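TA notes, week 10

Several of you asked for a full example with nothing omitted. So below is the full record: structure tokens for the whole chain, then the designed sequence directly under it. When grading your own attempts, check the secondary structure regions first.
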């Protein structure tokens, strides 16, 4: 017996992927669990019978030999896990768009790609096989793609998602129904929660990146925290959003990033996050959501530093001086340009560094007419463009130096100073 399963808290991408996988594998039974998000529950109350879905407790699991996993790759994420007698005896197939998730089975076939939706991956196969869909099947698949891509606006959206929607529209997908289920509307209790969270919202800046943090605690579970998170992100026009809300015994953590340059999962690793690098979630047992946000802030600080390299913080182009000019002229140049030091060169070759302190020392000894080469430091430590922030910081401490020329392929391309590090 072959079945198709998806993850807990089934969303529209998961539900539509169940249906699409059944169209591709008509010999497999699509199995629906009991944990579904509120909008999916509303949809299934009207249309469940149209999709031949079987309840998870209705399956004779001891007869199951093949399982197709859709919209997830990690067994702990599915309700089916507690019903499978022996996971090692199953032939696994995976369709998923969460490459960050660990795969804890050995699949006979797996298609795991960074796209906006799993439904988009499956529609590509339906199109290639020219499989006929009913208008309701096309509509559900369009809902799945639109909901997981923010109506094709989220940064992880791909051309495959857009082409899939076009094909579904050609197969009579009803945009009126799609709009009914994909608009990010809030109920009264969600609006109240959002207002309370806004009162505890802070925005911090990390360089040019604006990061929002918000937390709250309530006694009951309120669904669609991800929708509230998205609305907070949109309202405050931030680059990254982290939300931690305690509901009953659990703290729910939601993160969003508008750019693929930011992988929010990196900052949530200790909480075992699921999802994508730009849209991630986790839940942990605890009492203090503020402590969760503090840990994330510390991770941002530590991981952010480790990813900063010399080429991102260096000053360029570099103003240099000849080792033959006088100390007096070097001082005039420092005053003119507001520098605290110069790289000393001979042609294209870096010869040393002279600092304001070196020049002051020469003046103190009445040697303003001597050349720079007599007072410059020729004990030179250079760095590469890819040298990390932490490495630069260590070099400054170890060598008691405040500036490092950045050399690439033998050429001076920039300089990193203590001021750059402090910024």
């Amino acid at each position: 017996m072959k079945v198709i399963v998806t993850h807990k808290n089934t969303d529209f991408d998961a539900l539509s992927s169940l249906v699409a996988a059944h169209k591709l594998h008509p010999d497999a039974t699509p199995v629906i669990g009991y944990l579904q998000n509120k909008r999916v529950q509303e949809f299934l109350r009207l249309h469940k019978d149209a999709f031949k879905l079987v309840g998870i407790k209705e399956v004779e699991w001891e007869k199951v030999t093949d399982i197709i996993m859709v919209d997830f790759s990690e067994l702990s994420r599915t309700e089916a896990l507690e019903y499978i007698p022996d996971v090692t005896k199953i032939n696994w197939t995976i369709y998923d768009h969460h490459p960050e998730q660990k795969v804890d089975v050995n699949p006979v076939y797996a298609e795991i790609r960074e796209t906006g939706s799993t439904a988009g991956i499956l529609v590509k196969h339906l199109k290639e096989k020219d499989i006929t869909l009913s208008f309701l099947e096309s509509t559900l698949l369009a809902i799945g793609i639109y909901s997981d891509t923010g109506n094709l606006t989220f940064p992880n959206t791909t051309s495959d998602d857009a082409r899939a929607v076009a094909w579904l529209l050609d197969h009579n997908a009803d945009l009126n129904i799609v709009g009914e289920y994909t608009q990010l509307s809030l109920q009264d209790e969600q609006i109240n929660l959002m207002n309370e969270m806004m009162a505890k919202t802070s925005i911090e800046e990390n360089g040019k990146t604006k990061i929002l943090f918000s937390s709250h605690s309530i006694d009951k579970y309120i669904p669609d925290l991800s929708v509230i998170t998205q609305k907070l992100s949109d309202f405050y026009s931030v680059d990254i959003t982290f939300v931690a809300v305690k509901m009953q015994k659990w703290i729910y953590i939601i993160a969003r990033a508008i750019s693929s340059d930011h992988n929010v999962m990196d900052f949530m690793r200790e909480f075992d996050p699921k999802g994508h690098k730009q849209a991630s979630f986790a839940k942990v047992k605890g009492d203090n959501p503020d402590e969760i946000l503090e840990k994330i802030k510390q991770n941002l600080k530590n991981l952010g530093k480790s990813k900063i390299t010399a080429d991102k913080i260096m000053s360029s182009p570099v103003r240099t001086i000849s080792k033959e000019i006088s100390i007096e002229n070097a001082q005039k140049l420092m005053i003119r340009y507001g520098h605290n030091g110069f790289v000393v060169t001979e042609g294209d070759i870096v010869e040393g560094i002279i600092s304001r302190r070196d020049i002051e020392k020469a003046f103190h000894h009445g040697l303003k007419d001597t050349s720079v080469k007599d007072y410059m430091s020729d004990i030179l430590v250079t760095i590469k463009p890819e040298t990390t922030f932490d490495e630069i910081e260590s070099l400054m401490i170890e060598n008691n130096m405040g500036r490092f020329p950045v050399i690439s392929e033998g050429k001076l391309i920039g300089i990193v100073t203590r001021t750059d590090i402090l910024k």
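The chain is about 35% helix and 25% strand. Use that as a sanity check on your answer.
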